[in-house]
Amino acid sequence: MSLQPVPDLSDVFAYVDVHRQEFLDRLIAYLRMPSISAHGQGIAEVAQYIADVMNRIGLAARIIPAAGWPMVLAERNDVPGAPTVILYGHYDVQPPDPLDEWISPPFEPTIRDGRLYARGVGDNKGQHFAQILALESLLACRGALPCNVKVLLEGEEEIGSPQMPVFARAHRDELKADLVITSDGPVDADGRSRLRFGVRGVLSFELRAHGANRDLHSGNWGGVVPNPIWTLVHLLATMKNDQGIVTIDGFYDNVDTPTPLEQETLDGLPIDSVAVKQSLDLAEFDQPVERGFYERLSTWPTFTINGLHGGYGGPGSKTVLPHEAFAKCDVRLVESQTADEIYAKVEAHIRRHAPGVEMIRQGSMDPSKTRLDSPYADPIRRHRVKNRYSFRQWAAACPIMSLPRRSAFPPSVFPTPTPTNRTTPQTRTWRSNASTRASRPVRQCSPISGRIASRNSNLINCQDARKVKRKIP
Ligand SMILES: [Zn+2]
Fold first, then answer.
1. CA of 157 to the centre of ligand 1 (A)
2. CATH number at residue 125
3. Alpha helix segments (H runs only) across 4-76
4. Which of the two ends of the chain, N or C, has the fewest CB atoms closer than 10 A to its terminal CB?
5. Domain count, the chain
6. Paired strand residues for 112
7. 58-104 per-position pLDDT tens digit
8. What's the CA-to-centroid distance between 185 and ligand 1, angstroms?
9. Are both 85 and 47 inside the same structural domain?
10. Are residues 162 and 69 in the same domain?
11. Given pLDDT bands bounded at 50, 70 and 90, which one contains residue 8?
């Protein structure tokens, strides 16, 4: 597929510049409204508010009730047969506590030193409002959008998107799209964004080992009564060796070798490994030492012991022989691995090595990946002026990214808040010239507009079937 150069958007940018102050004022008005998903404050009002905003600019928006907080879904289909883009965001915010750490109140947006401070400005109200303003500007100048657009805003992202998988399944047809763009997440410290093409999945579980029916004295009972902490230690030692290789049968079966383009992209990502190690007071990264920084984060699964508990851990000593022990673990999943598959493999391993140990599943999300050579990737990369590099799989979980497996559409992430965006109050910021920058996401839409002649973008399914079994060192 050949792609046309990005169209001339100078009239749209001129419109944005003229409306700069108005856009900023409207963003500030939105930020004034609390929408705290953790306890529901303002959720219904803000869902209605942002649906009204989208209806006013010419999208058809509706509020869809869910078991938890509602979804807001808007759409506009101007070009039959053209690609459909979903813009994902979330209208909920984190609780603003601790309040005394805020320099200005969380719901009284304040500009200091060219930055706008408010709860939710950088996560994610600022970004998705910017995208809505971009659509508004494009409609004001051109009267129509060059592709079909849906805007999906959820109200539960900050509490882990518990309804998103159910919602995605129930609304599979309505959510059909060629591309999903989410702007959530920070830019790098140097101000450049990363285009993220997927996310590692996660599987969390707990292991429980039991000994006697109560704690016992190690002098009176040691050597007679088995110690459940040793049971777990021995079991865990059979699951990963000292070279960093997970030794559970079949664990790497669905881990694919990166394509040359993926490898080149990962190798090109900037990282100062020495500085990272220094900042963490580490002599070395984890085994296997030969793996690249981003290769570790993007292309390999992990097996992490999150915690190992049992017996006595207080001051001094206690001659206890504990009666139970717990290990909390998570596996980060890549490529075609699934949480169900890996859970079954870990469980089979436990049955073979320590059949008395209980395994309790706690939570999971499958991984997703969009091809780097998708027809959308390169135009987006080229036209995001400051973004010279891209990234394949994200280290952290982001619930929207779990949609592709269910909905067969590829996710891409275009984070735009400042690198200081954090959950800590005083640093959650957005550049106050956001109204100008806010509309720049028009650029993101343009390469994926109707100018893309063919609709064979179904090819961009994250379940891209390259099945090259990865060699385990
Ligand atoms: Zn967010």
1. 6
2. 3.40.630.10
3. 10-18, 20-31, 43-57
4. C
5. 2
6. 115
7. 999 999 998 899 999 999 999 999 989 899 899 999 999 888 889 99
8. 6
9. yes
10. yes
11. confident
Arithmetic mean of pLDDT over the chain: 80
Rank 58-67, 289-298, 333-342, 448-457 by mean pLDDT and report only the highest: 58-67
- Selected residue with higher pLDDT from 392 and 112: 112
Determine the distance separating the centroid of ligand 1 and the alpha carbon of 72, expressed in angstroms. Answer: 16
- Whether 183 and 207 map to the same domain: the answer is no
User: Is residue 172 located within the same domain as residue 207?
Assistant: no
Quick one: 177 and 53 in the same domain? yes
How many other C-beta atoms lie within 10 A of the C-beta of residue 239?
18
Asked if residue 165 and residue 67 are part of one domain, the reply reads yes
Q: 156 C-alpha vs ligand 1 centroid, how far in Å?
A: 10
- Element of type H or E holding 87: strand 84-90
421 occurs within a structural domain:
yes
Tell me the CA–centroid distance for residue 395 and ligand 1, in Å: 15
CA 9 – ligand 1 centroid, Å = 29
Rounded Cα distance between 40 and 68, Å, is 10
- How many A from CA of 105 to the centre of ligand 1? 20
Residue 470 phi/psi, 5-degree rounding, is -85, 135
Instruction: Give the range of the structural domain holding residue 310, as residue numbers without chain letter.
Output: 201-255+300-365
**Are residue 250 and residue 119 in the same domain, yes or no?**
no
Ligand 1 centre from 306 Cα, in Å?
24
**Residue 324 belongs to some domain of the structure:** yes
Report CA torsion sign: 170, 173, 178, 182: negative
User: 185 in a domain, yes or no?
Assistant: yes
Q: What is the pLDDT of residues 254-278, one digit of tens each?
A: 998 888 888 888 888 888 899 999 9
C-alpha 79 to ligand 1 mean position (Å): 30
The verdict on pTM exceeding 0.85 is no
Q: How far is CA 68 from CA 30, 238, 320, in A?
A: 22, 41, 46
CATH number for position 238: 3.30.70.360
pLDDT digits (tens, 9 = 90+) for 195-214: 777 778 889 999 999 999 99
End-of-domain residue from the set 316, 350, 365: 365
CB 273, CB 285: distance < 8 Å: yes
Distance 43 CA to ligand 1 centre (A): 15
Q: Which of 34-43, 147-156, 201-210, 395-404 has the lowest mean pLDDT?
A: 395-404
The encoded tokens of residue 289 equal 């030492």
Q: How far is the CA of 362 from the centre of ligand 1 (A)?
A: 22
- Residue 411 CA to ligand 1 centre (angstroms): 15
Nearest-angstrom CA–CA distance, 217 and 418: 56
Residue 267 belongs to a domain: no
Please tell me the distance between residue 122's alpha carbon and the centre of ligand 1 in angstroms. 8
